[in-house]
Design brief:
This protein is an all-alpha fold. Helix content is about 65%, strand content about 5%. It contains 12 helices and 2 strands; from the N terminus they run ααααααααββαααα. It has a two-stranded antiparallel ribbon. A hairpin with a 5-residue loop joins β1 and β2. α4 runs antiparallel to α11. It starts with a helix and ends in an 8-residue tail after the last helix. About 40% of the residues are buried.
Length: about 210
Amino acid sequence: MRITTQVLNASMRKAGLPINTVSLLDCMKSSGVQNDNPLSALNKGNTVSTDRKKYEALRKSAENLQQSADELQSEELYKEARESGDTQAVSDYAERLLEHYNQTLKSLNGTTSPLNQFYRQSLKEAAQKEKDQLISIGITQEKDGTLSLDKDKLNETDADTLEQVLGGSFTEKISFLADKVADNAKANAASASSQYNASGYNYFTESSRYNFWS
């Protein structure tokens, strides 16, 4: 199956994700892929973008991000915080989420893969959609897309509010995207030593046997 912006957006809509304002084609152009012959451009020898170590690092950060997002969806976490009156455990998980979110963005930006740039934009827009709620608990999105934290404000937030912001749609979307990023990074690392290790990832070829958005 050929991966197009329409296919990606349809999958994102099904998962409840915000639809990107930047298309996959835009990401291809910004990565140096020409509109008239993208497959040819993707096969040019940019070995740096497909370096195995980079994709292994990306896979690890994305897996950590998914785990952090899943941990914040635990009802038991907030139940214990309400019963004890201590939200420190929730705050600790939130700090780890932001750390792995920012690292994943950084790792994605370190590749020239159009699909990875699309995922990076998706992560940024997932946070942007929840901007007001995140600000209410001390999490702010910077101009580069990274998330910063006001620890005092986070620690002052009650358990119910934390669960509303961190235990719902935001972390569900982050977990969904992190899973796709990790899978894609794993495939990129495997392809790094093959003839397809040019310009990020030759997903037009690989997508015939691997559906990132299934």
